[in-house]
Amino acid sequence: MSTDTPDAPSDDTPSRAELAARVDELEDALAEATSEDDTKKMSIIATKGTLDMAYPPLILASTAAAFGYEVTVFHTFWGLDILHEERSKNLKLSSVGNPNMPMPNAVAAIPGMDRVTTKMMEKRIANNDTATIEELLETSLDMGVEFQACQMTIDLMDYDEDDFYDGVTTGVGAATALQDMADADIQLLV
Amino acid sequence: MNAEFDIAETLDVKGASCPMPVVKTKSAIDDLAEGDVLEVLATDPGSMSDIDGWAAGTAGVELVDQEEGDDVYKHYVRKTE
Q: Under an 8 A CB cutoff, do A131 and B19 touch?
């Protein structure tokens, strides 16, 4: 005697029509899910405002935009300075705390040394034809990168919304950033 | 230069360094018509790997050829859609 389920339909077995409808429904859901994946997304959180740390988020943002990614860069704390029209042109390189600097920390800590190392780096940037921060920012904005300035830190730093480059989004917080990160294929904290 | 394709436009990014060769190539490609080939002249040695990687990872473009000259790296990118 076989214990297999009998082929004959019983009351709780879906009909062929019901199964066909279910297949259609699942195919539609699959098509929708996969079509949304066509555009890749990258979400960067930029927290640093030194000259060297301003570069990575902007280089990656502009390059990802060139790949056709949707890019959001959420700037918070010192990262706000990258979006600050005036301060972005005046970012400093710290001479202390970096053992790769060609000077001991005791010398690096002398007042004015940050200005010296910053000038040295600015000269290198100019000589190497490396793009400036302003150039990278304007390029990224042109390419559709969304730059967001964290509202809590704008208030904390006593900045004004008008201080930022045109096109920068203000009035956003951690929840906005988190949602972007959840949707993104690449998430980076710089 | 190369008999297999006609060059529709030449982009000169000599002197520019990462990420500008890729970023400017993308902008120049946007202005071309489907099927057009863009010639990119660069001095950044990283552009050989970067433009190759960009073309492989980007929809609607295809790397046709790359030439490593004495001082100039030449890239040929076709817009495919």
A: yes
Task: Report chain A residues whose CB lies below 8 A from the CB of B57.
Answer: 67
Q: Which two tokens stand for residue A125?
A: 């940037």
Identify the domain containing residue B26 by its residue range: 9-79
CA distance A23 to A88: 55
Q: From residue A96, give the alpha-carbon distance in Å to each of A31, A47, A48, A77, A175.
A: 54, 19, 16, 20, 35
Q: What is the pLDDT along chain B (81 residues), one digit of tens a residue?
A: 555 789 999 999 999 999 999 999 999 999 999 999 999 999 999 999 999 999 999 999 999 999 998 889 999 999 998
CATH number for the domain spanning B40: value is 3.30.110.40
Q: What is the ipTM of this complex?
A: 0.84
DSSP one-letter string for B2-46: -TT----EEEEETT--TTHHHHHHHHHHHTSPTT-EEEEEE--TT
